[in-house]
Write the C-alpha cells for this entry.
Amino acid sequence: MKAIMRIGSLLAASLMLLVSCVSDPFMDGPYRPGNGSGTIPGGGGGSTPGGGGGETPGLSFTVNPNWTVSYNGREYYEGAEVDRIVVKSTDTQHYYIDVITKASFQDDFKNDVASYAQSLHDNLAADVKDGNAQWSDLLGTRESYILFDRLRAGEWKAFAVGFTSSGELTGKYAVLDFPVAEEKPTAAFNDWLGTWKISGMDLEGNKVAYTITLRSSESNYAYWLSGWEPAQSEDETNYEFEVFFNKENHHLEFNSLYFETVKFDDGEYEVCLNGNYKYNGKYYYVNEDIALADGIISDDGKSAQVIGCGLTLEMQGGQTFETQFTSMQMMYVPVAEGGTTYVFNTNVPQFPLTMEWISASTDTPQTKAAGTRLSAPRKARRHEAARVVRHVAPNPNQAR
C-alpha cells in the first residue's frame, strides 16, 4: 500500500513523496493528540488543532430523532482492517460521521457535545480553507457510512454531527456508545513478545546494538517497545513506544510517533520518533504519522530483519527519485519557527537492522529502575489510501 504525500517548502523542487512498505498499519489516528498536528518548523503548512474559528454563539445541541447511528463491525478493505460506522436518516439534513473514545470525550471535552462539535468544526473548516478537503466530500445525507482505520479495543462513541451544506454547525446530532473487544492473541503475535538484541551499523560504520523488549499493548495489534537507543527524558524516565503487528503477514511495523512536549531554556520541543532519508547528499526527517520500517521474523522466531520503508520523490516535470528511510531516531523537534532540531543520539543504527531473540521475559533492569513515558495514543481517523505530509526538515544530527 502506498501513501501519497506532498513535500514542504524545504524540498521546493519536489511535489510529492510516496511511502511504501509491505503494508500500511498506521491508520488508527493522527500524529498528535487533538485530532491533528500543528505547524512544525520547516514544514509546508498545516493547521493547528481546534483553530480556525470560535464558538458558534447562541447554538444549542439537541438529538435529531431522524438519525440512527450503528456500528457494523470490522472488515478488510484494500488489505487493511477497518471498522464501519453507518448512519441512517429519514430527513435531508447533512451530517459528519466521527468516532472518539469515551475516555477522550470525557477528558478532552468534559462530556460536552457542544465543545466537541465546535472542535470538530474548526478542524474540518481549517482543512477546507487549506484546500485539503471540500464540504461536499466530507458530509453525508440520507443513509451513508464511513470506514475508519482499525479502532483500538475499548469503549467508543460514534457521532453524526449536523452541518449545513456550507459547513456551519446546525446544533443537531446523534450518538452511539459501543465497545470494541480485544482479540485473543495468536501464536504469530506471541512470537514477537520478549527480549531482543537489535543492531546495525551507524553512519561511521560502527556497530550499534540495543537490548529491547516487546510486551503486548493490544493482542494481535500492537506492542510496547522499550530500550530503543535507549532514550530517556531529562529526569531519566525511559521512553517506550508502540509498534504494530500486521495480522496478514505477521510483520512488525514501526511508525513515527509523538511522546510529549518539554521546555528547555531556549524554548519548547516535541519529543518524537521520526524517520530519516537522504536526498541530494543531505539527510532530512519527516515529522509526520507515517510508516518508517517493516520487521520480518524468521520461521523459527529466533531472528528478524528490519528494513526501511521505500520513498519515491516525484519532482517537477514528472521525474522521480527512488530512495527509502535510512534510519529512525529519537528527536527534540522545536515548536518555535526557525528553531534547531536536536537528537538523543548521533550514532543510531542504519537500516537494515537485525534482531536476535534473547528470552521470553519482558521485564528489564531499565524498566524496573525507572518509570516510563509512553508514546501518545493516536485518535481514530477515516480510512484513506493517501496521506498528505507537510512537515519535512533537515536533520543536523546534533545532540543537546
Summary: Helices lie at 102-109, 113-129, 135-138, 187-190, 365-369. The first helix runs from residue 102 to 109. The mean pLDDT is 79.
